[in-house]
Specification:
The protein is mainly α and 449 residues long. The chain folds into two domains: 3-310, no CATH class; 328-448, no CATH class. It contains 19 helices and five strands. A hairpin with a 6-residue loop joins strand 2 (349-351) and strand 3 (358-361). The protein is globular, with a radius of gyration of 24 Å.
Length: 449
């Protein structure tokens, strides 16, 4: 009588271990591919200003980046071997006790990888790419929980990504800007031209975040989870087409990230077995304190993005994907002073009708050219980049800095601040909570002292 539930529990545990190992492998593949495509960002082989998150270079040293990357590579390679063993070797055993003894190795390697990834993020805010932040949170799950509970928490995190991404787009600014761009990319895929009225365009753009919100709701409940999974596949396949070479022709890492969601969602939500992990793993020896810390960290990770609505959490850690409500920064440099800038920077300066005597430096195009990655879309970071340009290239007071605050959710209106002298801009930058001083600028100040 007792054999049937015991066998069911063992089968569930084996399936959880297999799914967890496969998801771990997919996460590592995502990490290696994304770092490979954006390699200048990670090895500092670029001239784009580097802005540490805390500014404590005496404690978190940028010159140790290569060391932490080597640590990431070694830990990741060890995990790939461990995952392969789990997938192809470990589950042929009837006795799971030996396999549980290997959990400590799996947890330890993921913990080391998370520490290394966190340090390279701290030394340069631009490395807090949305996909990198997701991998860091997954790593916390892999390093603190047993397989079944790992899958439960990653499901919750995935649902939260869809929810927060949807809410971040439910505003007037998305309807007026990024939403229109996505719609144009969609229309570009059609074999014929179609003219849409303004009201119809607005209605279609409104459907984009509503689909994400519907996916989040469907994935929350057991009876509707399969439908949420199917709708998520449609969403990401559509995004790959819209953002791909036949649409908006975005960079490869964006397409890789959407492909990852296709695979991970099929692993997380396509199956029908979503029972709690406690039954299958209650007899496993494990660190309760480690598990408790993991639960606290993940509970914070699930709730903290909501503070982005009050301008506390950054856009990407708050899953504001393609959101356009955040504050904007523009930097204009007098055309006579462009000769002070390197050629690689000048080619990203453009004349505008708003400031005919100046040229606007496109900070995002410059970022893509230098690092193969987008600039961190945070006003703090972009202000620091603009300040670094002025300080490093001796532009002094021959510039115009325009700061457009967070857009009103219902009207899209923004408050603007215009600054045209260095001391005022430095005081403005000091008003942010986190660091706005570039690594080069700090070095220059230390030499001056």
């Amino acid at each position: 009588m007792d054999d049937e539930p015991r066998n069911s529990s063992a089968a569930f545990e084996r399936q959880s271990q297999s799914d967890c190992a496969l998801l771990s492998q997919l996460t590592l593949i995502l990490l290696f591919f994304q770092v490979a495509f954006t390699w200048p960002l990670w090895i500092n082989s670029h001239d784009y200003p580097r802005i540490s998150l805390l500014g404590m270079n005496f404690l978190i040293r940028p010159d140790l980046d290569i060391f932490w990357l080597i640590v990431m590579g070694c830990a990741g390679s060890g995990l790939i071997i461990e995952n392969i063993f789990r997938l192809w070797g470990g589950f042929r055993q009837k006795n799971l006790g030996e396999h549980h003894s290997l959990s400590s190795v799996f947890h330890f390697l993921w913990m080391i990888l998370c520490i290394a990834l966190l340090f390279v993020m701290l030394t340069n805010q631009q490395r807090i790419q949305a996909w990198a932040w997701q991998i860091l949170l997954y790593g916390i799950c892999f390093s603190t929980f047993m397989p079944a509970e790992t899958m439960i928490w990653i499901r919750r995190l995935t649902i939260s990504i869809y929810f927060y991404s949807a809410v971040s787009k439910l505003d007037a600014s998305f309807l007026q800007s990024h939403g229109q761009v996505l719609l144009d990319g969609t229309l570009k895929l059609l074999p014929f031209e179609i003219a849409l009225s303004e009201s119809l365009r607005t209605a279609i753009v409104c459907s984009f975040p509503l689909v994400e919100l519907l996916i989040a709701i469907l994935l929350c409940f057991r009876l509707t989870r399969r439908w949420g999974w199917r709708l998520s596949l449609v969403l990401h396949l559509g995004l790959i087409l819209i953002l791909g070479p036949f649409g908006l022709n975005h960079h490869v890492p964006v397409l890789i990230w959407n492909a990852f969601f296709l695979l991970q969602n099929s692993l997380l939500f396509a199956g029908g077995n979503f029972q709690s992990g406690e039954n299958g793993e209650k007899n496993v020896s494990r660190s309760r304190s480690r598990e408790l810390l993991g639960r606290i960290a993940m509970a914070i990770a699930l709730m903290f993005p909501a503070t982005e609505w009050f301008n506390l959490c950054d856009v990407w850690p708050g899953w504001g994907l393609y959101a356009s409500r955040g504050a904007k920064v523009q930097i204009y440099i007098e055309r006579d002073d462009l000769k002070k800038l390197p050629t690689d920077v000048v080619q990203h300066c453009f004349r505008t009708a708003a400031n005919p005597d100046h040229a606007r430096l496109d900070l995002f195009r410059w970022s893509f050219a230098e690092t193969n990655a987008p600039a961190y879309p945070e006003d703090r970071f972009l202000t620091a980049v603009a300040l670094a340009v002025i300080q490093n290239y001796g532009v002094k007071d021959r510039f115009v800095f325009i700061y457009s605050g967070t857009a009103n959710r219902w009207t899209g209106d923004r408050e603007e601040v215009e600054i045209s002298d260095l001391k005022t801009l430095q005081r403005f930058a000091e008003g942010f909570w986190l660091n706005t001083q570039s690594v080069k600028a700090e070095a220059a100040e230390n030499l001056a002292d």
